[in-house]
Amino acid sequence: MKKIILALAPICLLALLSFNVGEPLAIGSKLPEAKFPMMDISTGYNITIKEAAKSNGVLVMFSSNGCTDVIKNITRTKEIADYAKANDIGFIMINSNEAQRDGADSYESMKVFYEQEKYTWSYVLDAKSVLANAFGATRTPECFLFNSSLSLVYHGAIDDSPGDATLVSNKFLKDAMDVMISGKEVKHATSNVVGCEIAFAH
User: d(Cα 62, Cα 192) in Å, to the nearest integer?
Assistant: First the structure.
């Protein structure tokens, strides 16, 4: 029995490694995979995060169609997207649910959801979860804010009450944007992310 366990150990380790997601991008890191092309549901053409960035930086949000936490944050997502636009910060929403491309997070389902919610920004398909792996993103919604130099200044949630907008007391992401634009260092640079797990392909 001991020999069997020892023989199986490398196989189990390999399996664990194959499903391993990297650590979340560290504050101060440069934007990864900046030129990786992704299909934009809003236009039908490819776009990169670098192309979505504006003079004051870019906000990257990992999201999906059916996640209950995403649904609870739709109004707040629209508000933060408008705030980003008003402050010349690009905004791009990424769907990395590669394991659900034949269903809830297919290209067609993304298109229906985009039109249904009347989104006005780039909503893109992350083929093979390349961006999610590069960012170390694991949940939806999950936000990464980059400054004008495309360095990460904030990673986390929109605010401190993802499940109930009426209980919000700290608007982490909006505050981070304000501090970033002022040219100061974002002190509250990370927050706990609550949401559905990204469905990576197995």
Answer: 15
| Nearest alpha-carbon partner for 113 in 64, 152, 161, 156 | 64
Burial environment of residue 29 by CB neighbours within 10 A (0 to 12, 13 to 18, 19 or more): middle
Domain 24-197 top-level CATH class: alpha beta
Rounded to a whole number, what is the distance in angstroms from the first to the last CA of the chain?
Answer: 29
Length of the chain: 202
State the amino acid at position 92 in one-letter form.
I
Counts of helices then strands in the chain (DSSP H, E): 7, 9
pTM of the predicted protein model: 0.89
Low-confidence ranges of the chain (pLDDT < 50): 1-20
The domain limits of the chain are 24-197
